[in-house]
Structure formats: C-alpha cells, structure tokens
Amino acid sequence: MKKLENKTAIVTGGSRGIGANICTCLAAAGAKVVVNYARNQEAAEKVVSQIVADGGQAIAVAGDVASAADVKKLFDVAEEKFGQVDILVNNAGVVHYKTMEVTTDEEFDRVMKVNVYGTFYGMREAASRLADGGRVINLSSSAVRMMLPTYGPYCATKGAVEQMTRSFAKEMGSRGITVNAVSPGPTETEMFLGNSESEKIERMRNLAALGRLGKVEDMGPVIVFLASEDAGWITGQVIPVNGGTA
C-alpha cells in the first residue's frame, strides 16, 4: 500500500515549479490531488494529465489564495470530488526583491495578501474541515534566516508563515493534526530564475554547502514524508531544505 493511499490533498499554487513537483509526488504516493492555480490553467491541466497518465487521480481548480472565498471553494470542490480533505499544502506565493525604500504600498499589499493571508485562509479553513489526523504543510523560505538586502517584505511574509505554523500546531494537536513548514533555499524555479540576475544566481549557488541551487525535485519527497504517518511525531517545526545554504 502506498504511503498516502485514500488520502486527499489540496496543493495551492500547484501548477508550476515546486508546487507541480509536490503534486506529482503526493499522487505517486497514492493521494488524490487538487491542483490549485491562479491563472495558468494550461500548466495546471498538464500536471493533472501527468498524474492521470501515471495512474493517479487529480483535478485542477482555479482560485486566488488571496481571496477567502476562493480558498473555501477549493475545499468545497475537493470534498465534492474526493471526499474529506486530509492534507493541505500552502505552497502558493509570490516573490518581491526590492529595497524597502522603493517598495510601493501596492507591492507590499500584494506580497502580504498572497503569502500571509493566503496561508492564513488555508489554515483557517483547514481548522474545521481537515480530517482528524490530517496534515498541514506550509512553505516558508530560507531567506528568512539569511538577512539579505531587497528581501525585507518577502522575508516578513515568510517569518509570519513560520510563526503561524507554530501556533496552529498547538491549536490542532488535540485532533492529531500536525502542522509544519518547509523552508527551501534558492531553487531553480521559473519564479526565482526569472527575477534574479546571473550574478545573484551564482552567489546563491556558492552559498550552499552542496555547491548548487536546489531543484524542484528536492522538495516533493520531503512534503510526502511530512504528509505521511512516518512524520506523525513531528509538528510545529520548520524544516530547512536548502543544501546547507542557511
């Protein structure tokens, strides 16, 4: 029997990058997966097609995690299609690399709404709708510990995610629900590479003890572990997955 057989998972921001790998890894472990996307339906359907071709079950569901109503809809659709939700992965996020001096109110609001409010909305919905013994896994960032210039607003959002993770773990423990965060280091995603100049990419590569950037394939297996019974005694933790970057 696969580790996550008969489990249902929602993955926000599951159409590309780390999120897509999380979806395929969860499905390979037996979970039925709700692949959330904000705009790129084609990419989300591609992830679903890959899962189905490999013998799994998945659906793509549109929704902006910055909207509480859209997050509620994710749970509604998941329950209608697959039954009670067992696993929530709050992966959706946006980056912001600017000094605080030139960051506009609108830019700050956007990164806060997606990264902090989106994670909060997911956890709030999970509090009443996740199955007993379920799993909540939030995505943070090793940038929180690196104190890099131009990362201030972004790190503020991920610091908030880590603190909410710890508090929510205490709130959900009586139902056997574990709540953890995974903290990737610099990773070869379209979002990171597309928003970073070559000098910065090389500098980040050299910071890792293992001498490379992370790959999306490095993340999914860790998520599967935290979602499984094997991780039943791990909660309220932030797990760095960064090759020794920070």
Automatic annotation (TrEMBL):
Keywords: Oxidoreductase. It comes from Blastopirellula marina. Coiled coil: none annotated. InterPro entries: KR_dom (IPR057326), NAD(P)-bd_dom_sf (IPR036291), Sc_DH/Rdtase_CS (IPR020904), SDR_fam (IPR002347). The keyword Oxidoreductase applies. Belongs to the short-chain dehydrogenases/reductases (SDR) family. This is 3-ketoacyl-ACP reductase. Transmembrane segments: none annotated. It holds the Pfam family adh_short_C2. Residues 7-185 form the Ketoreductase domain. It comes from the Bacteria. GO terms for molecular function: oxidoreductase activity, acting on CH-OH group of donors.
